[in-house]
Amino acid sequence: MFGLEKKDTTLLILVAILTMAAPFILNPFPEGSGLAQFNAGYPDLMQRFVIFGIFAIGFNILFGLTGYLSFGHAAFLGVGSYSAVWMFKLLSMNIIPAIILSVIISGLFALVIGYVSLRRTGIYFSILTLAFAQMSFALAYSVLTPITNGETGLQLTLDDPRILGASATADGSIPVTNLFGLEMRSAFDLAVGPWTFTFSAGYYVCAVIMLLAFYLSIRIFRSPFGLMLRAIKSNQTRMNYTGLNPKPYTLAAFVISGMYAGLAGGLMASMDPLAGAERMQWTASGEVVLMTILGGAGTLIGPVLGAGAIKYMENIFSKINDNVLHGWFSFMPDGIENFMVAIVHPFVGKGWHLTLGIIFMLVVTFLPGGLVEGGQRVGKALRRNKDEDSKNASTEPAE
Amino acid sequence: MGILDVKDVGKRFGGLQALSDVNLSVKENTCHAIIGPNGAGKSTLLNCLVGKLIPDTGSVMFDGNSVLGRSPHEINQMGISRVFQTPEIFADLTVMENMMIPLFAKRDGAYRLHGIESVSSERELVSMAEQMLEDVNMLDKRHMHSASMSRGDKRRLEMAMCLVQNPKLLLLDEPTAGMARADTNNTIDLLKEIKEKRDITIAIIEHDMHVVFSLADRITVLAQGTPLVEDAPENIKGHPKVQEAYLGEAH
Ligand SMILES: Nc1ncnc2c1ncn2[C@@H]1O[C@H](COP(=O)(O)OP(=O)(O)OP(=O)(O)O)[C@@H](O)[C@H]1O
Ligand SMILES: [Mg+2]
């Protein structure tokens, strides 16, 4: 189906079901219960899951397939956001033109940066991309202020000269982003007993785009182009002597992944129309590297899992403060309670990075294939158990 | 004039004159062996033919065109495929994927952003790859990870990857080194068969004299970077200069 092999179709359908049902799946705990703080089913966070999923899917096309490690991909994300906000300011609050411009501009940007950076390989390539991204970051704060609005960040104002659409709504506020009239921030709540599920238009738009992006990445992985990219990672010498020029392939992968990043940036601005230079900072570039490796570089679904895991920790773990911890351990005697809180404290709240760091180290050391490899191992172990069970079951009657 | 003409080629590495005054002409549809003691410059000469090294002096003409200054992928597209002394394959990929890459290169050229049809939907190329694997007795290994194969299998795979491109000139750098006797004999048979069936010119570097005398129509003996003699195999065997070069170097 969809020009995919059966295994890939199954994966795509599974991902589609999970993303469509995310408002339920991510809200398993009833409101008001002690565990409700682990719910991630609110629009803002769900949007971040899928947007960073797109970012990581694109990054994986470059890093996972060709092995070229870019440390500057956040620059394309930032460029995408700025482009989108400018489109909102100048043209229309419809997100389609904004997203299209984000993808085009970040693609052009990636073409220039990629062309220069790909003259080197390995660590030098990484350093070049990092340098370009930091340069973009610094420029956004300084000489490019007319375009980026410097430290304040680029925002919508009441006197934007919007060609298609009004500068301000009738009641004098800034118009909101929409998809042909469907407002991105619109949402409706579904209350089922003690649960409340929120369905946000913005999330579903992002989710559908993520599914399209994911589908395209599967096609790329399975295509001759994808095979060439894997050949680049495997053995460039053999590739050269086989009559292939690795350069244009690598550049194409770089540009495609830059466009994915631009798409993510454009969507981010579509959900919340502002853009700041901090989106281009090297920490943001590093984050997508972590996501991809954590989930499993070079696998189809890994980057999405990695993005989800990191965004979940960033938003949920970071909210656990000492009060919450005291609540958890309140059943213990006072001394032990304080002791437990003191032990757990460094790993949660502002210390969530420590947890992330430890998990990352464990994964890289014991599961070089990331969370996907972890899943595969669990799956294999289960299957083996089942096989043994059925073998036992089938041999028993014979005895 | 042969299909490959090497004229007055010299190459220097620092203080070492690896090649000097190499003249060599390989006739179309023949098998030309280059033999010589270790360090004679055989691999260096091969590297000068495929764009890995650029000779300091002289010229290399293939099929009427100069190869000098062209990059390896351009030279391959001219019709020269090469097997390395240590196998160069795509170790992260499966055997079948290894076979598909040279086929795409042959059909689509050095670079083409293919559509997004899947690799497996290229039925014609897939069956060509399978046929070639069958010819080298590796069809049963087509789903194997090529990194996990024996050295002999890697060599056979590399050879299959070159042959499937149907090159005009096939360059082999010690293709049977590290192979078991049986595999060596299979390789000889395969190359003989290829020679008969196709219009192909082979230049082979080989230490195994059994292989050389089974295949070669013409032999050049290289010693210390210069061709010593070039003659038909039956004249090479007892040639005093050859004995001298080998005995003088190796023993
Ligand atoms: N890239 C290089 N830089 C410096 N010296 C080199 C280089 N390549 C080869 N040499 C030297 O040139 C000489 C010829 O080497 P070459 O590999 O061509 O020999 P060969 O005939 O292929 O030997 P073997 O039978 O061992 O493969 C050797 O002394 C080698 O050390
Ligand atoms: Mg050699």
UniProtKB/TrEMBL annotation, chain A:
<keyword id="KW-0472">Membrane</keyword>
<keyword id="KW-0812">Transmembrane</keyword>
<dbReference type="Pfam" id="PF02653">
    <property type="entry name" value="BPD_transp_2"/>
</dbReference>
<feature type="transmembrane region" description="Helical">
    <location>
        <begin position="354"/>
        <end position="374"/>
    </location>
</feature>
<feature type="transmembrane region" description="Helical">
    <location>
        <begin position="288"/>
        <end position="313"/>
    </location>
</feature>
<protein>
    <submittedName>
        <fullName>Leucine/isoleucine/valine transporter permease subunit</fullName>
    </submittedName>
</protein>
<feature type="transmembrane region" description="Helical">
    <location>
        <begin position="325"/>
        <end position="348"/>
    </location>
</feature>
<feature type="transmembrane region" description="Helical">
    <location>
        <begin position="201"/>
        <end position="221"/>
    </location>
</feature>
<feature type="transmembrane region" description="Helical">
    <location>
        <begin position="45"/>
        <end position="63"/>
    </location>
</feature>
<dbReference type="GO" id="GO:0005886">
    <property type="term" value="C:plasma membrane"/>
</dbReference>
<feature type="transmembrane region" description="Helical">
    <location>
        <begin position="94"/>
        <end position="116"/>
    </location>
</feature>
<feature type="transmembrane region" description="Helical">
    <location>
        <begin position="248"/>
        <end position="268"/>
    </location>
</feature>
<dbReference type="InterPro" id="IPR043428">
    <property type="entry name" value="LivM-like"/>
</dbReference>
<dbReference type="InterPro" id="IPR001851">
    <property type="entry name" value="ABC_transp_permease"/>
</dbReference>
<dbReference type="GO" id="GO:0015658">
    <property type="term" value="F:branched-chain amino acid transmembrane transporter activity"/>
</dbReference>
<keyword id="KW-1003">Cell membrane</keyword>
<feature type="transmembrane region" description="Helical">
    <location>
        <begin position="123"/>
        <end position="144"/>
    </location>
</feature>
<keyword id="KW-1133">Transmembrane helix</keyword>
Automatic annotation (TrEMBL), chain B:
<keyword id="KW-0378">Hydrolase</keyword>
<dbReference type="InterPro" id="IPR003439">
    <property type="entry name" value="ABC_transporter-like_ATP-bd"/>
</dbReference>
<keyword id="KW-0547">Nucleotide-binding</keyword>
<protein>
    <submittedName>
        <fullName>Lipopolysaccharide export system ATP-binding protein LptB</fullName>
        <ecNumber>3.6.3.-</ecNumber>
    </submittedName>
</protein>
<dbReference type="GO" id="GO:0005524">
    <property type="term" value="F:ATP binding"/>
</dbReference>
<keyword id="KW-0067">ATP-binding</keyword>
<keyword id="KW-0813">Transport</keyword>
<dbReference type="InterPro" id="IPR051120">
    <property type="entry name" value="ABC_AA/LPS_Transport"/>
</dbReference>
<dbReference type="InterPro" id="IPR027417">
    <property type="entry name" value="P-loop_NTPase"/>
</dbReference>
<feature type="domain" description="ABC transporter">
    <location>
        <begin position="4"/>
        <end position="249"/>
    </location>
</feature>
<dbReference type="GO" id="GO:0016887">
    <property type="term" value="F:ATP hydrolysis activity"/>
</dbReference>
<dbReference type="InterPro" id="IPR003593">
    <property type="entry name" value="AAA+_ATPase"/>
</dbReference>
<dbReference type="GO" id="GO:0005886">
    <property type="term" value="C:plasma membrane"/>
</dbReference>
<dbReference type="Pfam" id="PF00005">
    <property type="entry name" value="ABC_tran"/>
</dbReference>
